[in-house]
Amino acid sequence: MAFVLFEDSLSLVDWGITAMKGELKSEHCIQFTARLIERYSPDVMVIENTDQYGSRRDERVRALYRSFVTLAGVNDIDVARYARADVDKAFNAAGALKKQERAQLVAAMLPALSHRVPPIRKPWMSEHPRMSLFEAASLGIAHYFHQNQAE
Questions:
Q1: What is the set of domains in the chain, with CATH numbers?
Q2: CA–CA distance, 23 with 14 (Å, rounded to integer)
Q3: Which of helix, strand or coil describes residue 17?
Q4: pLDDT at 21
């Protein structure tokens, strides 16, 4: 699980990745998120819209995201949900069509993350764990992009 905390569109406050394993990984993710909320008191939680048609997330992950929404509601935090297509729209204009290109663009926008860009993935390799950090940052950047589009 990765998180990125923004102060504004290009100012990072904190970020990180934590490994959750075992049967209770969803519960650990919820507890971890609750600690982040307690520590930082965010105004908005930006998450992937796993209820959107075409989402390839399994039911465990969908239930986890519903728990995040509940947790945000209990803590009076707004929730912004974006489908993968919304994130793609925010990055396509810059020519970042693939995850690796998006990670490199995020690193250029957020230099504090530049040393964490995962190596280029070969077809036989699984996705590098650090890619989740860039996917989290992409969601945050897409949130600011879509907010500016609405204004």
A1: 2-150 (3.30.420.10)
A2: 28
A3: strand
A4: 83
Cα–Cα distance for residue pair 80/108, rounded to 1 Å: 24
The residue whose two tokens read 């994130």 is 87
CB-count burial class (<10 Å; 0-12, 13-18, 19+) for 78: exposed
d(CA 26, CA 32): 10
Share of the chain above pLDDT 90, in %: 72
24-27: list long-range contacts, CB under 8 Å, 24+ apart.
26/60, 26/63, 26/64, 26/67
The pLDDT tens digits of the residues spanning 117-138 come to 999 999 999 999 999 999 999 9
Sign of torsion, CA 53 55 56 62? Answer: negative
pTM passes above 0.85: yes
pLDDT at 10: 81
- What CA–CA distances, in Å, run from 76 to 2, 41, 56, 79, 122? 22, 10, 29, 9, 43
Say how far apart CA 18 and CA 60 lie, in whole Å. 18
b/e map 95-122, b = 16+ CB within 10 Å: ebeebbebbbbbbeebeebeebbbeeee
